[in-house]
Amino acid sequence: MTESAHVTSISALGDFRARLIVFRDDATRSLDEVSAAVRRMRQWIRNDQRSHWESEVRRRRKKLDEVLQELMGARLASLRDATAAQETAVTKTRRALREAEEKLRRVKYWDRNFDIEVDPIVKRMGGLRTTLDHEMPAAIAFLANAQRALDVYSGRMSTGEPIPVEETPVEDSEPS
Questions:
Q1: Most-buried pick from 3, 63, 101, 104 (CB within 10 A)?
Q2: pLDDT of residue 168
Q3: 73/96 Cα distance (integer angstroms)
Q4: Is this structure's pTM higher than 0.85?
């Protein structure tokens, strides 16, 4: 039984293939950017933020000691107006110290748990990377070969003409 195929747009395969190449390149670039952002975030938490909040806690403790001494001095001098101002300063300084201690506690939490929280996402990105690096080139090569076969079938190209491929076809590997 000899039936002919009714193919209306062989060039659509080429257009799709070209868009697939652009998609793969954009997705690969995006994965690289995300991976770099994860590394920068890890370093920012472990180095920059931790040292910043540790020094901030030290600075605010020192400031609290200073305002407590001022309050004690005002109490000893029995200056009621000054004492109220010093008590307000102590309250504000204690609040600032608690805030810095809380920030440091959070930074330490993320320092300990960053990899635990982020690794599952990074592993999923690794799966996408594998698809982009191995399966996409095979799909792109398949589309190029299908377009060529349809061109030959329709008589638009002879069998001896080279395949117009921007990428080298990847040999089929064992299915995963």
A1: 104
A2: 46
A3: 22
A4: no
